[in-house]
Description:
alpha/beta
Amino acid sequence: MTRTSLLRRRVGVLLHPTALPGSVVCGALGASARSWIQALAENGIGLWQILPLSPPDGTGSPYSSPSSFAINPWLLDAKDLSDQGFLQSGDLESLPGAESAGSEVDFSLASRRASVLAERLSICWDQQPHSRRAAFERWRRDQSSWLLDHATFMVLREQNQGRPWWEWPRDLAVHDQKALGNWRLEHQSRLLEQELLQWHLSRQWMQLRKLATALDVDILGDIPFYVARDSADVWSHRPLFSIAADGRLREQSGVPPDYFSATGQLWGTPVYSWSRHRRTGFRWWRDRLRRQWDLADRLRLDHFRALASYWSVPGGDTTAMNGVWRRSPGRELLSCLRRDAGGRLPLVAEDLGVITPDVERLRDRFHLPGMKVLQFAFDGNPQNPYLPSNIRGTGWVVYPGTHDNPTSLGWWQRLDDASRARFASCLDCHVEAPGWQLLELGLASSALMVIAPLQDLLHLDDAARFNTPGTVGGNWTWRLPVFDQSLEGALQGYGLRAEVWSRR
């Protein structure tokens, strides 16, 4: 990303690729994604925000992934693969779910489809021309820091009936190189399937990035702070995390008790062994960010406050009450990442919640935009940092709501009378379309970026909500049914309002 694009006002839409229409089972990186980028560009919308591209966990969440480097195989577009000759005649029609497109993402069906697709791609691989095979080998060498371990982890997990790595045979669980070498010799074809999946996913995504760049649409990615306990990252780099060889957590992540939870939040992911990260020059973090910056123009860094200090809870505890605050080497890490990025960090700091001055200083030292969510603004506190009148300067990304919030219509429907009155007073008019009216407040601000969830542009209620934090069912499944006139009208209206505000 150029310095110019970093500094000029961008308006955007939040829509994860799994929610794209037109493909079977799950949104994919093919024709519908290209149409989406073109629709944004045609309406002057210069930013597409996505959630982490990584493979999801069993609940569909991309924030608890088996890999910090891989791309979700559900997203692979089989039609493009077939058109390009990577599949045999008839493969497309025989894939699971080929008979119809579902209205929501079906996790089980999407996984089965990806598994069969990987097998078919491998079967056809020997017939591919030399140029394609050479391109794959170059890419495989470029991704050597993570690819083989990821492929190994995924095959081993399947062989062990989905059990976590600490329940595998011990020599494989502890990542013994001799045992792994012997195992890999016996399972080369299965490893090839996983590597080909990731190559095709990277190839399709980079084609989308190229299109977006040509049309002046930036992609804002997302990166979780912590990584899943049962992940290729922890399994292959266990000394970098507070976890024992038997999978026992020495220390785990969370947040302390507050107004919303008397026992705090316990996330169950290992915290980082920061002293070891320091000794390696933060190599794992730098590899991780380098990979993600290949996939996006900017990254939203979730739970940014943990780069200043983090809440560390004893590994055996069942609540977060007995945790302690520990300092993080955030300044050192961000300095390394800034050098890697060429002198300016293309990050957005997720700084929501109770943010202390040390977090603000760290964010501002590296000139990172923070986040303002307007749904949080109307509690009656005149000092509320999310009130539009309290948003000053350009260093912000303003949202009506995020993927973790209700839709703005759903928020309005459940809002108490006093908060409704405060919102109407801020607007100085009646509330008729809360999502659009929150968005108008965002556009009226001086913020660097303004981003609306697509559900708000379409005036959808909470039946279209993407995620409800603290719940494990019914999340991450919503899909846009179709590209139609209502979508076209919503994007056109958004682009026109953004243009009006840009002239003021």
